[in-house]
Amino acid sequence: MSLWNTFEQVESTLRERFWSYAWQPSNAPSREEMQAKLREYEASHLQESAMTRRAAMIALYMDTVGIAVDADDWFGGVTNGYGDFMRVRDEIKRTYAERGWSGYPRSEVSRRAGWADLDLSHTSPDWYDIMRLGICGLRDRAAEALAQHDPTDTEGCEFLRAVVTVYDALRRLVLRFADEASRVGAVRCEGVLRGIAEHAPRTFHEGLQLGLIYRLAQEMSGINVRSEGIFTQIYIDLYRKDLAEGRLTREQAKELVKFWSNRLLALNFKANHNVCLGGTDAQGQDLHNELTELMLDAFDERGQIDPKLTIRVSKATPDSVLLRCARSLRHGATSMVFANDDAAYPMFLRSGRDASELYRFVAIGCYEPALCGLEMNCSMSAYYNFAGIFESLLEEESSPASMEEVLERYLALQRQALQEILAAECAGEPYWKEVNPSPVLSGSMGECIRKARDVSNAGTKYNMSGVMCAGIGTAADALAAIEYLVFDKKRCSWQELRQAIHANWEGFEALRREALFAAPKYGRNDPRADRFAVTLSNAAGELIDSTPNTRGGHFQMGNWSIDWSVMMGKLTKATPDGRCNEEPLSKNLGATIGKDNQGVTNLLLSAMKLDSTLFMDGSVLDVMLHPTVAQGPGGDLIFVQLIRSYFAGGGLFLHFNVVDAGELRAAKREPEKYQNLQVRVCGWSQRFVTLSPEMQDCFIAEAESKTP
Fold this sequence. Notes:
The chain is an alpha/beta fold. It has 29 helices and 17 strands. Helix 2 runs antiparallel to helix 3 and helix 7 runs antiparallel to helix 8.
């Protein structure tokens, strides 16, 4: 029987079986029992350091967790314990709230506008070293460093010993998988598993298998993998070697990629798994290669939302790459975002990164820029809501004499809020190394080994703390409405506007209509609104980006919101732009829903006025197009022109939805008929029918404004 050309036959059954195998050994602990074992170990070993305790718990877990290997799969290694460590980690994290750290700033002004958190999720391991050294090589590197390390540095020695412990345990786990593969007759993957247990990957198949095994190990230890690395860089040499030596054909490699991708999809991670393609080297040469096209072919043929793709673009990127991506977008495959090397590189240099390292640029999570394997960007360490300032601004009874005075009041409140939010984060960061030491992730990073310090203890070369800033379009519209209604047209006084907002616009319907439909709007290339977006984001970026954190790095501003545009909206009172209590905020760098109705060019021109080099934690513009815009033989060029134009103007990330409002309404009414309709929600894609009714309505309203 041929082992190849089986993906379409087993694709869905592999995913269905993923969480319901007969785990081996047959008496393996259930998830509840395993969590109890971890809690018991934690509680009974408090005399040990958090690092030593965590390494022993990881080893215990790897040695006892239930495992499975599927004979139909090219990749081995499934356990019954995904998420166990994360649950225990979060229980430990909650104890720090009980000790007095809540993450909330001091004043009511600041609490309305944001809060702080310990971001233990957004990471990118050093995929280059993982593939170069393999499991044993990573273990041996730590062991050699331990042998040479100063024995009086107890903390450093404990860390290096912990790395050796967890990678030894990981090797044992891989051999358990290999033995199980032998037992069930999984001939596709047994040899590959035994190979990566002993040496660095030597084939494309071994490389992909090691990637999945490493991901499993890191997530077992309680910390998410949020970037699969730059696929076209880390796997290209293995791929070319296999083809040159006749071990693999292109079609067989593509089938391996499909099986690899299917495993990621089976994990059912809502935000999807981020795979980066392309990039630019230090000399400005484009790094897209034959794996770009292979991955895009597999992406199209699978028709799935996971993994999602980050396409790195520069002036050197051939149009052929963008045209190939455009073809996928036109067919409704929305699970990709475009990243601008020509904007990201100056941004990285501005923040002190080394120019020789910039080829490692990845999007961690959704679109948070970082250098693969060299940093912890902790991109959601704090949250700030531009629109949350208006409740405090409108509490001021004294009437401002001018719009300049209004803006001064807003900026003073913003400064107070951000300073208190960042202070709250700094109060919590020292707890991280007690909450979640991470020897698996740290063991992949050369700088952590050189420093003998964990990622939670500033071991990486760059240690950043990201601040997600949401609602810039809503805030710009609200300030533009104040200027229009109170000062330009004198339609109402400051006091009357305050009354209307406090009444949630009830009884002030005519005034609300003017705010909604007559006042200037961000997203239309109208300087009367756009100038406020520039002023607010500049002020926020300059403050955030210059504030040190407690880990030897600094804070970074992100001008994005993901689906927090809805969640933060629920926490936000009515605003002067006509928005009512609890309605959604504008999303990411985009306009208020339905207000960018003067054409996509004007939306881009508004967003291009913002300085993306301030947004070191990322920014993204959502572009929604009606299908008729991209129809016909030249339809693909529309996407290329939009990407090139936005990136030439300094934009950082860009993604698309190509949808029709009528189709979305029909999908909401009859979801069973539209199971494959996907939309780009924020930093990820979902099936439209799986969205909440509220989120579906947001997409429908946005699409209606784009209907010709």
